[in-house]
Design brief:
234 residues; Nucleotidyltransferase, domain 5; single chain; 5 helices; globular; 3-stranded antiparallel beta sheet; 6-stranded mixed beta sheet; alpha+beta
Length: 234
């Protein structure tokens, strides 16, 4: 039985993670923990989907704001040419029929790497960051990665080949296939909306917040950096 459920949102422009402990979920389904990513001038719940890979083409140097900062430093001195700097690479898989594990994608400087390696390194970085955060919070308690069930969210427009590709990348990043769920972004958003407190219920003694009553119709609009989808639910 999993101790917590963790989610990785690998977005076109921004990415992040979230998790919820099993015991918290039983009392409040909105008890969700996220990371605050630190930039030079602000703090955000998402980090830029930017990956900096060392010249060997296999070792991740940094992700997000750290990758942006390091690449800028390298560019100032002209030492960036051998490094691999990927940004907005997620949508490169869209509209590619029969994407394969050996599909190549191009980085900012024009060099190519296998897409599976780029996605794997990115997912692993986010996964390891989440695990490190949980271990910090549970210091003194026994915790193993096998205690986590993972969810990776994907755009609804992706075809089966792209979905399978992401599953392969997640497994290559160290996520057990038996602990992995692939979820569509609008469906995940809809499930979350169902448990949002949206109406104030004033009774004889106390005031409380209520969820959507049965029969409610609502629209979920997901305006992302690469795709926009609109879904209607009842």
């Amino acid at each position: 039985m999993s101790l917590l459920v963790a989610s990785i949102d690998l977005g076109t422009t921004f990415s992040g993670w979230a998790y919820s402990y099993k015991h918290d979920y039983k009392t409040s389904r909105n008890s969700i923990r996220t990371k605050n990513w630190h930039a030079s001038s602000h703090i955000s719940q998402k980090a830029p989907t930017v990956v900096l890979i060392k010249p060997d083409g296999k070792t991740l140097h940094s992700f997000g704001y750290d990758a942006e900062s390091k690449y800028a430093d390298l560019a100032e001195t002209g030492d960036h040419k051998d490094w691999y700097y990927f940004r907005r690479f997620k949508m490169l898989l869209f509209d590619r029929k029969g994407v394969q594990v050996n599909t190549l994608i191009e980085e900012t400087g024009g060099k190519n790497l296998e897409a599976i390696e780029v996605f794997c390194l990115t997912i692993k970085c986010i996964k390891d960051d989440l695990i490190a955060t949980v271990k910090q919070q549970l210091s003194g308690e026994e915790f193993k990665e096998s205690d986590v069930s993972w969810v990776v969210t994907l755009p609804a427009i992706w075809n089966d080949a792209a979905k399978q590709f992401m599953r392969c990348a997640a497994e290559k990043a160290g996520i057990d296939k038996d602990k992995l769920t692939i979820a569509l972004e609008p469906e995940a958003a809809s499930l979350h909306c169902r448990h949002l407190p949206i109406e104030k219920n004033v009774g004889d003694s106390d005031a409380s917040l209520c969820k959507y009553p049965i029969g409610t119709k609502y629209i979920v609009v997901d305006a992302g950096g690469g795709t926009v989808d609109i879904t209607v639910h009842e």
